[in-house]
Amino acid sequence: MKQPLPPLAATVSAVPAQRMPGRLGARKHAAASGRRRQGGGRLYVVDGIRLVAALMVAAHHYAGTWRVDQPGNAIWDRPVSDIMPTVFRFASYGWIGVEIFFVISGFVICMSCWGRTPRQFFVSRVIRLYPAYWFAVAFTTAVLMAVPGVWERLRLREVLLNLTMLQSGSAVPNVDGVYWTLWSELRFYLLFLVVVAMGLTYRRVVVFCCVWGAGAMLAPVSDLHLLELVANPDGAWYFIAGLALYLMHRFGQDLLLWGILAMSWLMGQLELGNRIEEVERVSGWRGSVLIFTAFLLFMVAVALGYTDRIRWKWLVTAGALTYPLYLTHYVAGTTLINRLRDTMDARLLVVVVVAGFLILSWLIHRCVERPVSRLLKNGLDTSFARLRNAGNPPR
């Protein structure tokens, strides 16, 4: 197990001498502090936040985007702000759920990879990402074939390439528009794999945050497409915030980590504004920054252990629904809304569609993710074992 950071001198000296005799007492105090900071077990509240973020994104796509607020749009046929103005007002900010996902991803990836080898990191990402994703690609394509006229269906060769999750690197469209975030995630994983290969430590993760942040700041003005591709300036600072928050959780807070988090907030608020102007066009910068700031402060509370007492078992299930819900809800859900929009109240329809996709997500988790992940893990473990032993002479 990795050792915690040494306690600050002031912290050590504050412990009464009779309770901490000499160097032995100091070592015991440091070990106890490390155990408290590292906290064992699952952070249930993070699972809950993930589902909230997914529901924010779903509500945004169904009732809060610029697209659905246009006259004659393919989903509602008239501006959604005319149909349900209050829902639209709140749903227009739901896109921030994506930025929340990125922060949580930085936190969770750092936590789950601590002490793991690159092989274990690779296997864990494959079995986590691909089973539900493969199902989502097939499911969405089937929906588009069965219910044409709302979204354009890709050619077969483009659909097949989507199964790799690398279509953005080949300039091929996504089967579902929400898959664009997976391209950001994959680039983060590839970068972080370098640190995993070196062995995760407090110092190395901090250096990684600083180097990646510098690259993300330089990329937009460098005119180097490769640097912009690798540094991912649109998403880098959200992942970096998550990494800094996990270091706070594992080792305790310090000024350096607060500085990284503050820089992430400053860069993030600019990116929020850019996204509003270039893509979203339905929400305000102040409201977006307020939501993002509140989320970061809540994550600070999580990192510092203030939510450790929340251990509701149902939150684990909530977290398991998040990824399948995100992958399947958009194209298929808006297609259903197009067909059912005249059958019931619009607000009720949104609730019914979301509930239906939550049920589908549970089925995907139980019937697809679990069994396929086990098969993939066994197969990959066997393959890596064979690869490791390939150069050994037979006995």
Task: Write a concise keyword list for the protein shown above.
disordered N terminus; 395 residues; mainly alpha
Q: Which class best fits the helix and strand makeup?
A: mainly alpha
Q: Percentage of helical residues? A: over 70%
Low-confidence stretches: 1-37
- What proportion of the residues form beta strands (DSSP E)? under 5%
> Judging from the principal axes of the Cα atoms, what is the shape?
globular
Cα(first) to Cα(last) distance is 35 Å
Order of helices and strands: HHHHHHHHHHHHHHHHH
Largest sheet: none
Output the radius of gyration: 23 Å
Q: Averaged pLDDT, please?
A: 90
Number of helices: 17
Number of strands: 0
Model description:
- The protein has helices spanning 9-13, 22-38, 44-63, 80-83, 85-91, 96-113, 118-146, 156-162, 180-198, 202-222, 225-231, 236-251, 255-280, 285-303, 314-328, 330-340, 346-389.
- The protein is an all-alpha fold and 395 residues long.
- Helix 10 runs antiparallel to helix 11 and helix 12 (236-251) packs parallel to helix 14 (285-303).
- The radius of gyration is 23 Å and the shape is globular.
- Residues 1-37 have low confidence and may be disordered.
Break the fold down into its secondary structure elements and pairings.
Layout (H helix, E strand, L loop, with lengths): L8 H5 L8 H17 L5 H20 L16 H4 L1 H7 L4 H18 L4 H29 L9 H7 L17 H19 L3 H21 L2 H7 L4 H16 L3 H26 L4 H19 L10 H15 L1 H11 L5 H44 L6
